[in-house]
């Protein structure tokens, strides 16, 4: 394993929290941060000459005239265009983009996978990305892909950006460092990160091999869901999101930049590290969030509400309330509902549900859905508690009970998800998954009364 860069080798802005790397609190704020004093122009964006001989450059994450605009002004040692030479197409055969409908693969069904085993093979963030499902169309900026990553090697003098997507990263094992143009994010299990479309970065391992999940969002950016009658607090609170302070390196070494663009990958060589943004201001930036900060709201008398109450982030699709992607978190919480079947109910959903287990046991599937594992309950296909969960919950003594040691999530999309050949043939698919419902017995015998 290559050693991660010492964050002290970057010149970093001071941080309000005094940590290294440093972060600024807030979600979608207008941040400003400078790693050298006076590097950030005040009162304007484009002075005739910038301090320190920096170049001003705007990174636009929304259309110039969007209803709510997001952009960041970067002051950097060289403009990005100096970072792009002629591109050569390269193959990353395991990183697929929608549309990717393989005629030999059936996606209609209920699927569950054991964790994809970690490996000794050298795999970076790019070569270790394994697409499980795709939905929508990357060319029209609609839909998503779900991936698992296996990382055993840091990227060295090798950088990446996705023009196709913003990435939501959900680590499950191992710690990663995202050294980005706008600063450094260190990420570990129980945290998530959002890496915006177009942002250049490299990913380094902080310790042993890393595994986790990624939701690649081709559409509109993630935002916090409206809380409705819940009010101004709970669920994910804005201040708990952390955006890195400016950090740059001035290293002139032969390097490569890989770009994901309309589902294809291209690579170019450059003569320096592109992480040379000395100061920036704006509201288009990467961030991380500790899932332990998520404050769940739930039923406190009876019944089991829709899982939308556990939405951490939502990426709109253009149809109000019908998300391109909802990121939903099932974490530790108290179950107190009276006279209620407490686990998820049996259901069919127009939205497609891709789930992953970060740690512990999920209440609807006490066996078989293990940490690092995934499941897919695709559009309108029935699912719900397995036989054991049903019997347990319908006969339980309904005292207040803490669901402890549990953290699973769902990438829920309005679009059907198509399995990749990797998900169908190479990943450890559980062939017997649907048997978990097969011995659910008939209790109806024509006589009234609860059974
Ligand atoms: O299917 C699942 O396990 C996810 C889920 C959880 C829940 O509490 C309600 C509905 C739902 O789809
Ligand atoms: Fe479901």
What are its keywords?
6-stranded antiparallel β-sheet; single chain; binds 2-(3,6-dihydroxyphenyl)acetic acid; about 450 residues; 2 helices; mainly beta; binds fe (ii) ion; Jelly Rolls
How would you summarize the topology of this molecule?
Blueprint: E1 11-12, E2 23-25, E3 31-34, E4 55-60, E5 71-76, E6 88-90, E7 110-113, E8 129-137, E9 142-151, E10 158-162, E11 166-173, E12 176-180, E13 183-187, E14 191-195, E15 201-205, E16 210-217, E17 241-244, E18 247-248, E19 255-261, E20 264-270, E21 277-282, E22 287-290, E23 311-315, E24 325-335, E25 352-360, E26 374-377, H1 387-395, E27 401-413, E28 418-419, H2 421-426
Parallel strand pairs: 10-19
Antiparallel strand pairs: 1-18, 2-17, 3-21, 4-5, 5-21, 6-20, 7-26, 8-9, 8-28, 9-16, 11-14, 11-16, 12-13, 12-15, 14-22, 17-22, 19-20, 23-24, 24-27, 25-26, 25-27
Bound molecules: 2-(3,6-dihydroxyphenyl)acetic acid and fe (ii) ion (FE2).
Protein name: Homogentisate 1,2-dioxygenase
Binding site for Fe cation: 347, 353, 383
InterPro entries: HgmA_C, HgmA_N, Homogentis_dOase, RmlC-like_jellyroll, RmlC_Cupin_sf
Give a quick precis of the structure.
With 451 residues, the protein is mostly beta strands. It has helices spanning 387-395, 421-426; strands at residues 11-12, 23-25, 31-34, 55-60, 71-76, 88-90, 110-113, 129-137, 142-151, 158-162, 166-173, 176-180, 183-187, 191-195, 201-205, 210-217, 241-244, 247-248, 255-261, 264-270, 277-282, 287-290, 311-315, 325-335, 352-360, 374-377, 401-413, 418-419.
Ligands present = 2-(3,6-dihydroxyphenyl)acetic acid, fe (ii) ion
* CATH architecture descriptor text of the domain at 294-436: Sandwich
Structural class: mainly beta
Strand order, biggest sheet? 2-17-22-14-11-16-9-8-28
Low-pLDDT ranges: none
Strand content: 35-45%
Terminal CA distance reads 58 Å
Which class of the domain at 294-436 in CATH terms?
Answer: Mainly Beta
- Total helical segments: 2
GO biological process, one term: L-tyrosine catabolic process
Protein name: Homogentisate 1,2-dioxygenase
Binding site for homogentisate: 362, 383
Cofactor: Fe cation
